[in-house]
Every structure is written in structure tokens, then in C-alpha cells.
Amino acid sequence: MLPVPPRKPLALLAAGLLTVAAVATAGCGGDAKPAPDATAGPHRGGQVVIGSSTDIGGVNPVILPSAVITSEVIRQLFLPLVEEQPDFKTLKPSLAASWEFSDDHRQLTFHLRPDVLWSDGTPVTANDVAFTYRAWVSPETAFEGAYALEGVERVEVLDAATVRFDFSEPYSTQLLDVATGAVILPEHAWGALPFSEWRNQADWFLDHLVSNGPFRLASWTPQQQIVLERNPFFYDQPLPYLDRVVVRVVPEQANQLTQLLSGQLDYVLQLSPDDLPQVEANPDTRLIAYWTTGYNGLGWNLSRPPLDEVRVRRALTLGIDRSTLVESIWGPYGRVLATPIPPDVWAHHPDIAPLPYDPDAARRLLQESGWVDADGDGVRDQGGRRLSLRLLTNAGNQQREDALVLIQQQLARIGVEARPEVLEFNSMVEKAYAGDFDGLLMGWTLPTTFDFRFAFHSSEADGGANVIGYRNPEMDELLEAIRAQPNLHDAAPLLARFQSLLHEQQPYTFLWQSQRLVGVRNRVHDARPNHLNNLFNLRQWWVDPSN
Amino acid sequence: MGRYLLRRLAASLLLLWLVVTLTFLLVHAAPGSPARVLGSSNVGTAEQQTRLRHALGLDRPLHEQYLSWLAAALRGDWGVSQSQGRPVRRMIAEALPNTLLLAVAATFVEYAFALPLGMWAARRHGSAVDHALNAGSLVLYSIPPFWLAIMAILLFARLWPLLPPSHMFSPGAEEWSAAARLGDLARHLLLPATVLGLTVGGGTLRYVRNQLLEVLQRDYVRTARAKGLSERRVVIVHGLRNAAAPLLQLLGINLPALLNGVLILEVVFSWPGLGRVTFDAISARDLPVVLATTTLAAALVVAGNLAADLALAFADPRVRRP
Predict the structure, then answer these.
(1) Contacts of range B179-185, beta carbons closer than 8 Å, 24 or more positions apart
(2) What single DSSP character describes residue B113?
(3) Are residues A345 and A460 both part of a single domain?
(4) Which site among A109, A150, A259, B300 is 20 to 30 Å from A223 CA-CA?
(5) CA distance A429 to chain B (A)
(6) Domains of chain A: total
(7) Neighbouring C-alpha atoms within 13 Å toward the C-beta of B152
(8) How close does chain A come to B189, measured CA to CA in Å?
């Protein structure tokens, strides 16, 4: 299943529901139906049972793909230096009480809290940070986030509570890359195993597990359940209210819904829009819906004529009735996107609206570029070639499959033949990288670093995630300039230009952003999941006393 | 008998080797690689892919990977899961007993209803009962197991919440007494075992009926009837005993269907067995795990058939003469 790390450039989203799950929200969402009045305020005790489609796979984040539930659980066990907040702006001290940049912005010094202990009583020190960095960048561990640390030249331990990262040059995501993107690991417990053995002995880390987060691992039964319990030594007050959190692995979606409705599960990470009437009709359950920062779009293969023509791509966008499509697939839980940065994120370009649905304009543009239906079969042609496009998506994501069918009908009205192909996820990825498609309907995650080089820089067009083959010198310069800003918020004008360039050129027909639909039993209070973490404030959750 | 045994054994091993080699090639030929699946969140970095491929040993030539895997497997070393970094042997050791438990319980259910009903249909062959049972078994035989599973969950877990629809134990059961845990396990086993037993049992019912029918038309049965034995005794002692050998053989023949059903039902019922391990491994293109579970399943099927044939050969001397 697709790893979608907490903060990663453009993670390809996997088999639908399961991984649309991983994507994020732009800030706030709200309960569609408020929790019935909590008679008492937060109080300690009880347990919550969470349903997840996937298992965690292990406890060492360096060797694990950061799949949906894995990241969530890891972040209950281990703390990062700094905790990112869902508004894309605020940073909250975690292991690091404070941090500062040198004047040339090439050195970043963290001052650690002195009072954080590992679960065996050993203090968390700067040595743990340096050890974790070595693990991240070791070729032997092959950490999937290693690319984000390429700008770091070295890490120096100044004293037990002070550690400095030296960078080769200033760039916008220095702090996010080293402090929020991944968690700090215990050197005294895990340093004993050579990096070369890490990928061969995952269970070793389980046997030598010490942690420092709000919860600790009580037990893990592979394919069955993960049990977390309150970490009584957690540094921050108040300690978690819940005694235990049980994550039950239930791969079958219908089974998850059944267990939510009948009370065996308290919290289901991802519902399908079809499930909602039952959740809403049940007096004991409610829905929490929030915007994710995952965005779905139809990427055009720009190396294949006539898709290399802006005019043709605009015609295709104008010819797809995105409002109707999103309305019929998502109802109120989706909206049409014009750019990859959704509306409630600060970097969103406020003046860009999605192109209208205008089949007449679409027909005109196609006519102008020489595509006419000469043989009268309903499909435009030019020089004996029919305007016929192979559109790919992955199986297992009902929304994308439905969308392709609607798009096929809509494009037929402007004389374009679409041939949808629904492939197993890995097969689709393989074809995407091989450039073996005309259009590719897929989902990406908005990186909170706003580093879009992976999707749109020409250097990533051969073998990289820029599978559509987008090459534009102005775009390259823009992306590099955004990256080079020491303060990301100064990049707002550049990010605006980035979005208008995409809007002009339509390398993607952006389709929708959707809400994540979480099902909750009413006995659970104060759950506030967000795009960074579906169990974001787990330490603040509390439950009604069981009768 | 010795030569027959040797010949069958050699054929079985050859078959096993073919299955394993084919699986190896198929997994390699399938689109996607474990490195890509593992590293697809940072798909942009080709260097990361290279590192991962090297760390997983995927950059070696195919024949080298094959030979080293085969040599290790023959020594009993199944390697390490590429997606989880856990020893495959340990993953199988965790999952196999659960699968066997489900399979045995399902087989019990299968025979518990297929034997008596098959006998009933044979005794009343041509009657309305026989026709009804025939139709019923055909329906069961044709229903996809996952559909029946979902219906069972909707009925017995949602509409009438009588039984747990997933897992082997309730949350918190690890703190209960052994007796309470056993009861909990039995409750959790009921739905998946019944569904699996029913879907496999449809065919068994018909087989039992037909075998018995054939036996019941033999001369010795007519003799037994002529002696004035009760019909019950005729069917059970003279009929069933003589139909026993082919029924034994059916156990082996049914094994693939059983394993197939287990694979699907383990996913639907969150049962932590080999099917789940295999299913996840296929999605992750986790070669060592796919190879190990396939080999194991193939070995089970081959061994099951071999045992069934040997049992038949033992019971019926005509079989072991070429």
C-alpha cells in the first residue's frame, strides 16, 4: 500500500480509499454532526478502538515505508525535534525547546529540552539527534526520506543538549527537513545494530524498543492489532487521558463500517461517501470531515502530440465538466481545484478560478489546431490520425474509476475519444514512469514545504515523478527560486506565479480535492484529526466512562 | 508399493519445483518492483531507488537471485521480507497455525453438513429432497466466498449483532483467562469457518451423494438389503464404508479450493493467516514472502493429493499396478 509520508514531496497516492486517507487537510475541518453533550469534561481512563485497513509493519521509521497507520503510530511513540501544525505556518517546540539560524542561514542550532526521558529512564540527548541523522543518510539503511537531507553537510553535537546542523547553502525547507519531517531515535538502544543489518532485522528494533512519545507500545500482534498505552514518563502535562488505544487491522472496508456501527470500533480512519447515510442515521456515530491536501488531476503526456500543444490541453480542460463530475462523485465532500495548492492554504493564488466548462470553446480550440471530424465518425481526426486518448487510473479507487467514465462521456461531446484503462496500482505506476499513457488520473499530496520540483522540474522529467514530462525553463527557475528562499513565507509571489503558470499551460487538468471522512462513535471526544496526522491530538482524546 | 511410492514422490517434487520456478519468474515479470513500491513516496529520486535495490539485492542478475534463493530455501532459510525486514520463517510461523485452524474448522463444517445431507440425498435419490439438495449444493458451489462472507457479516454482525465479524480475539482478550480466551476464539472462528465450509461443501455434498448412489447400486448392497438389514445400516455400513476411499481422496482434491477460499476470507474477516501475508506480499511485490507462501501452499496441495492417492492405493490394490 502506498507509503505516504507525513511530509513528502508529491507522494503518489495509492489504491484509493486506503491512501486518499494519507493525504492531508488544509487546516480545519469540522464535525458534520456535533458530539452529543459531554456531561463531564475530559477525564482519565478507558480505551479507544481504531480501525485501520493496514498494519504498521514495524517500529523503526527509517526502514519502513511511511504508510498510513505507520506514521500515525510512530508519532505517538517518538517525538520529532519540532512539531508541525496543520495550518502550514505554526511550529511547536517538541524535543527542541528552541532553535536559531546563524546570520548566513547556513547553521541551524537546536537546544533540546533537558527533561525528556526515553522509556528506560535514559535522557534524550544531542547524541540521539546525531545518531538519527547518521541513520537517515546511511546508504545502507536506504531511508526513503534521505533525499530531503542532501543539503546538510554535517551535524555537530555541541553539548548534551545542543546540536547544530550545517548546510551547504540556505534554502526554504532547512528547518522542516531536519526537524519536523522525521522523528528522533534512541542511540543507546538502537546504536548497537550496524546499519547494514537494519533492513534484515526489523524485529530487533521491536525487541529493543524504547520510546519517548505520549504513548508507548504495549503489544503488537501482526495483522491483528497494535496496543498503545499511556507513557507515564512523558515529559509534557497533562498525560494522555486514554489508558489504552487499540488499533485493529481490518482490511475490508465494509467490515470496518459494520464494526463502527455495531460498536466494536470507535474510530474508522476512512469512510467512503456511500457509507455516510448509515453513519449519520446511527444515533451512536458521527462523521468528522476535513479537507485533505491531496489533489487529483488528469496529467497529460506532454511528449505525445497533440498533447504537447497548450491549445489542445486547454480544450480538454474546457471540455470536462468538473463541477458536475465532483458533485456526482463526492457530493458536498469534494470541490473543483484549479491549482495544486488548495484554497485554504496561505500560498493559494486567490485569483485563479478553475477554467469554466465550455464545450463550444473547447470545440473551437480543437478546430483551430486542425482537429476536425473529416470522416464523420464523431471523433476528430487530422492527417488520418484520430483524436483518441488512453486514460489510465488505478483499480481500487472507485472515485477515480467513476471519474474516468464521466470524462469519457464528456470528451465524446467535443469529438475526443477517451479509452479508460483501470490498472492494478503497481502496473499503473510502472506505465506512468515508462510514459506509456496519454492521460493519467492520479492523486498527489501537497508537500507542506511547497517544494514542487519533483512534479514539475525538467530534471525530474526523465525517470522522476514528473511523469508527464513537463519541461519549461521559467518553471525550473521559479521552482529553484522558491526552494532558495530562506523564509518560505517570502516565496508567496513566486508561488503565485507558479500557480498561474500551471493555469496557463494546463499540463494537468486539475480535478478535485476531497474531504477525508472519519467515522467516530459518540463516546469519543475531542478527536481532531488533520492532514498531518489522523490521530493528531490523540493525547487529548477522552471517552465517556463505559457502563 | 515401494516403487509406486517412489515414482509418485519424484513426480510430486518435480511438480513442486515447477510451481516455485514459475512463481519466481511471474513475480519478476509482474509490473512494479519492491524497491519502487517501498520507495514510491519519494519517487523522484532515482538514486534512492538504486540504493534500495542494492540493499534488497535486486540489482543482481535474475539467475543469480534464483539460484541463491533456491539454495537457501533448500537449507530451510526463507530469507527476509523485503517490505517488512522480518524473517519470512517467523512471519509464516505466526500465520500458518491460524490458517490451519481455520482450514480444519472449515473442513469440519464442510463434512458435518455434506456427509449427512449427501447420504440423505442418495437414499432419496430422484425425490424432491434430492432435487432441492442438488440445487442447494449447486448454489453454494457457485457463490463466490467473499460474497457469502460479506452477507454473513451483514446478517450476523450488523443486522443481528451475534458474532464478531473480524479477528481471532476481542480487544483486551490478552488479559483474560485461558478458558475465556478459548471461548472468545471459538466465537471468532464461527463465521469464517462456516462460510468457508459451506462454499467448499457444496461440491462435497454432490460428490458424497453420487459416490454413495453408485455404491448403493452394487450387488453387495442388494445382498445386504436382501438379508433384511435396516436401510440405515445398509447405507452407513455397506454404503459409506465402500465409498470411504474416494471420499478420502476428495480431501486432497478439495485442498486447493480450501486454500483459495482461506486466502480471500482471511482478508474479509481480518484473520491473521497465510492468506493475508500472501495478499500483502503480492501488493508489495515482496518476493521472498510470495515465494515462501506459494511454495508452502503448493507443497500442501501436492502432499494432500499424494496422501489421498496413497490412501486410495492402499485401499485399492488395482491402483498401484501400472
Answers:
(1) none
(2) H
(3) yes
(4) B300
(5) 7
(6) 2
(7) 26
(8) 14
